[in-house]
């Protein structure tokens, strides 16, 4: 979906405040802002930074950023620099697995060719009939250890938080329940994130089950992090929850929007 379409869908579903957080890019914000002004939605300028941490790819959301700040812009440009090569390697791996033409297919879903991600490959695999939904695409082809998985070295956790902070934003650890970590690993991630200047953690998100809301609420309090809500909405056919569908935060959390 285009940024204006996301905003329009949010407005139709009763959303009052929306953050647009594209992966490692800011180009959708002007279009989203124009649509938000027309729809009466408060738009929070955001970004989602890809991070490499102890062999895992982690995502850090930046909220209320200055999208023109030179430190953030330069950092994201450096992070995007590896996306083209990674996309080409993913396509080559998928071709070896018997699925040709995936780079062209995935590229059809983005306006910026530097921002082709695994999500775009997943969408192409669905629309071309190779899998029934994007979750299956990751489970069968794109997840760690699968034929189309290509490891890539992204920004460090400290770099991502510093870029966001330099641009006046709040750094939030995105959908922590998705990462394949045990309790010790989760604690290590939360502690390091807090120590490098992280502000919040997504507690209620489309990527979490209802049972996980309470778990991450407790961890946010334990580590002194503010609690965030994020739909992780990418489109009606590739998201766990639609815009406006998420429940409120569990009691005891301090909402991050008190700082916005």
List the helices and strands and how they pair.
Blueprint (H helix, E strand, L loop, with lengths): L2 H10 L4 E4 L8 H11 L2 E12 L2 E8 L6 H11 L2 H14 L5 H6 L10 H10 L6 H9 L14 H10 L3 E4 L9 H13 L4 E6 L4 H13 L3 E5 L30
Parallel strand pairs: 1-2, 4-5, 5-6
Antiparallel strand pairs: 2-3, 3-4
Any overview of this molecule?
The chain is α/β, with parallel strands linked by helices and 260 residues long. 41% of the residues lie in helices and 15% in strands. Strands 1-2-3-4-5-6 form a six-stranded mixed β-sheet. Helix 3 (70-80) runs antiparallel to helix 8 (157-166).
Record keyword descriptors for this entry.
260 residues, alpha/beta, TIM Barrel, DNA polymerase, domain 1, 41% helix
Amount of beta strand: 15-25%
* Low-confidence spans: none
Q: What is the CATH domain class of the largest domain?
A: Alpha Beta
What is the CATH-assigned architecture of the largest domain? Answer: Alpha-Beta Barrel
How can the largest sheet be summarized?
6 strands, mixed
Give the H and E element order. Answer: HEHEEHHHHHHEHEHE
Distance between the termini: 26 Å
Write down the overall mean pLDDT: 92
> What is the CATH homology-level superfamily of the largest domain?
Metal-dependent hydrolases
If you compute it from the alpha carbons, what radius of gyration comes out, rounded to the nearest whole angstrom? 18 Å
Number of β-strand runs: 6
Number of domains: 2
What is the compact description of this entry?
The protein has 260 residues and is α/β, with parallel strands linked by helices. The protein has helices at residues 3-12, 29-39, 70-80, 83-96, 102-107, 118-127, 134-142, 157-166, 183-195, 210-222, and strands at residues 17-20, 42-53, 56-63, 170-173, 200-205, 226-230. The model has no long low-confidence stretch (mean pLDDT 92).
């Amino acid at each position: 979906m285009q940024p204006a379409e996301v905003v329009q869908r949010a407005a139709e579903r009763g959303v009052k405040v929306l953050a647009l957080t594209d992966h490692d890019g800011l180009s959708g914000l002007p279009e989203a802002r124009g649509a938000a002004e027309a729809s009466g939605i408060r738009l929070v300028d955001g970004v989602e930074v890809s991070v490499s941490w102890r062999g895992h790819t982690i995502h850090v959301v930046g909220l209320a950023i200055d999208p023109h700040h030179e430190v953030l812009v330069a950092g994201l440009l450096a992070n995007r620099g590896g996306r083209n090569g990674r996309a080409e390697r993913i396509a080559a791996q998928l071709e070896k697995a018997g699925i040709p033409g995936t780079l062209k297919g995935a590229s059809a879903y983005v306006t910026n060719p530097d921002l082709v991600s695994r999500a775009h490959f997943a969408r192409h695999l669905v629309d071309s009939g190779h899998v029934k939904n994007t979750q299956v695409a990751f489970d069968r082809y794109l997840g760690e250890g699968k034929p189309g998985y290509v490891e890539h070295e992204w920004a460090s956790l400290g770099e991502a938080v510093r870029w966001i902070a330099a641009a006046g934003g709040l750094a939030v650890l995105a959908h922590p329940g998705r990462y394949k970590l045990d309790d010790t690993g989760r604690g290590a991630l939360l502690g390091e994130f807090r120590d490098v200047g992280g502000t919040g953690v997504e507690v209620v998100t489309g990527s979490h089950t209802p049972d996980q809301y309470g778990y991450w609420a407790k961890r946010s309090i334990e580590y002194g992090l503010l609690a965030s809500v994020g739909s992780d909405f990418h489109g009606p056919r590739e998201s766990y929850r639609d815009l406006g569908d998420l429940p409120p935060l569990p009691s005891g959390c301090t909402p991050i929007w008190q700082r916005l």
